[in-house]
Amino acid sequence: MMHRRTLAAAAAVGIALVAPLALWAQSAATQTSTAPYLKAFPNFAPAVTPQLPGDVDTALKTKLENNNEFDRVQREFDLYSWQMFFALAWPTNDDGRPAPRLTDTSFGAPRWTSWNTSPQIFRTNGGTPAACAKPGLIKAAAVAADTAAPLFAGLGTFPAEAHAANPRTTRLLGVISAVGELNVNTPMNDIQQAFSGPLIDQNGQFVYYEIMIDKNEVTYLCGNSLYNINGQLDFTAAKKTVVMPAGIDTTNDSGAFELKVAWKVLSAAEDKSGRFFTVDGYIKDEDANNNEITRQVRLGLVGMHIAHKSASSPQWIWSTFEHVDNLSVDPVANPGLKPSFFNPNCELCAVNVLPVAGPDGVYPRTPTQVWRSVPIPDAKQALNDQVRATMAKMGSVWQYYQLIDTQWPTDPSAPATDGAGPLPNSIANKPGGDPTPVFLTNITMETYFQGGNSPACNIGGGPGCTVFFNGHAVPPTDNGATVFASESCMGCHSSAGVYSAYNPKTGNGVAKSGTGDFSWLLSKKAQWKQ
Question: Has residue 79 been placed in a domain?
Fold first, then answer.
C-alpha cells in the first residue's frame, strides 16, 4: 500500500478567473490539454473553472507513481476533490449553463441542485420515478417533488407552499441520520437496529441529510429498473451484476456521482454571519408532544461527501468536506458565534455519544459533543490555506469550507481481504483496492463510528467486545488485539448490496454484501412496489 507523506506548505498564488463557457461546452466532449485545475500543480490553481473532470489526470498519476512520488499522487487526488467541489458549487441556470464566475450567485443555484434527490428516484411507494418515465427529465433542472406520495417513509407529506417553492433553492428534508432513513417517526425497534443516530448541534437542533444523484447514475438506475425492489429482483434473477458507469479523464461530466449533504438549522446570528452557504428549507420535526410538525427554516451547509466512480478508481473516489466552524471558532474574530458541534467550555463532556431515544421515541435535544478522531493531515491543511486565500479574495462563501481528505484505491486490482483474515489487512483492505487513507470520516456524517482504541473482535468474540469496523463486526480471529478504529468510506460502501430475494408480506429480504457497486442507495432506499 502507498503511504502518504506530509507536503510542505506552499505559498498561495495570484488570483485570476477564466471565462468558463468554453470549458463547459466540453462537457461530454474530449479534452485535449491538461486540466486547468492542475496548471499550478502541486499547488492550487486559482483560475477556477466549472469543469467537472471525469477522472484524475491518469497520465500525471502514472508518471508520479513511476517516480515513487506518492505524496504528489495524493495531492493530485486532493486537487481533483477541490475541482469537483467547485464544479458542483458553480452557479448554473435551469438550462445547465454556468455563470461567468463562481461568485455570480444571482445567476443560478449550485450545479448539484439540478440533480435528482434520492426520494425522487427511490420513491416511498416503489413507483416509477418521473425521471425514468420521462427520460428528458434526467438532464433537466431539478424536478419539483411529487406531492402524491410522502418523500420519506413514515412521515406525512409536506404542505402545498413547500412544494410550490423553487426545488433548486428550497430543500425538503426529513432524514436525521446520515446512515439509513431515521426520522422523527421511526419506530422504536427500527431506531434500536439503526446503524447510527441523529447528530444534535450546540443549539439543540437535529442535523438533516439528503443525497443527490447525477444524470449518469440516474440513467443507469432507470435503464435497469433498479429504483425499486421489484426491479432489483428481476435484475439479479437475470444474473446481471451492478456496474455503475465509470468516468474517464478525457471526458468531462462522466461517471456516476453521488452527493451526500449535511444541513444545520441556522440561528439568526449564524445566518447573518455570511459564513455559511445558506438555503431556505422545510424540515420534518416533532413538537413537545411527539407530534410530527413541518418547520420552515434557514439551513446552512456543514458537510458534504462527493463519491465518484472512475476508470482509475473502480472502488470510487471519496472526497469529504466540512464547514470550518464545525469544531472551532475564533471568538475574538467572530464574537457571538460558537462551534456548531463542540462546546469548548465543557472539558468534561464525553465525546461522540450516540443520543438515545426515550420510550416514546423522542430524542432529548442534548447537544452532541463531537470529536475528530483522525486529524486533518498537514498537507491537506496547507492546501486548504491556499484555497481559502483564493476564495477570500473573491469574496466567496466557499472560503469557509475545507477538504478533510480524499480516499482512493492505490491498487484497484488488489482483491478484498477476508474479514476473518489477519490484521492489519482484515481492516485496512476490507474493500479491496488497498485504499489510502485507511480511514476517512466526516464528523457530521460518521460521528459515532470514530471508535478510538478498541479490541479487534466482534460482539461474540469475548468480554467487552462491542466494536464494529466499517459498519460490520470484525470476526473473532484477532481476539486480544487492540487497534485504532474509525470509519472508511470505501470500506463501508463495499458492503452495499442489491436485492436478490424479498418477502413483501414480512418485509424481509436479502441484499448480499458486495453486490451494490459501492452504492447503499440500492438496498437502503429502494421500496417494494405493490
Answer: yes
